[in-house]
Amino acid sequence: MNKYETIDLMEVANNGATPPNCDLTLQIKPVYAKGGKSKGIWEVDEKFLNGLGVTMGGYLASAADIMMAYAISSQLQESQTFASIDLHTTFHRPVFPGTVEVYASVERLGRKVAYLTAELVQNDKKVGNAVSSVMIIEK
């Protein structure tokens, strides 16, 4: 198992380094992460669908969580790491197989807690959003 540091996540997002297994499993590719913002491209296929033919909501939450990790990593020092406190996801419309863009932002960065948001877009329509509180941990 490879353990990633925040600096490693920046290498993944901005320089094409090998991503963590969760990214590979979900088929999400970070495009960039800098200045508290990140963007990823998620390729949804049949393995993410429920019995009704739409993407299970937990996968949307995971995609948002992954890209929020990149956003917060772009704001932290090498001596810091992070862990999610909570994650709240709202679904606006069903997600079907195809490409989903995931945008994440650090809305507020404190010494011990950060607040982040994410938006998921398919075919130029918002399909979901998420908010998360993240604890900042000194190593």
From TrEMBL:
Q: Which Gene3D superfamilies match?
A: Hotdog Thioesterase
**GO MF annotation: an example:** fatty acyl-CoA hydrolase activity
What positions does the domain Thioesterase occupy? 53-127
Q: Which UniProt keywords apply?
A: Hydrolase
Show which residues constitute the signal peptide: none
Q: Which InterPro entries match?
A: ACOT13, HotDog_dom_sf, PAAI_dom, Thioestr_dom
Domain of life, per lineage: Bacteria
Q: Which family does it belong to?
A: Belongs to the thioesterase PaaI family.
Indicate what this protein is called per its UniProt record: PaaI family thioesterase
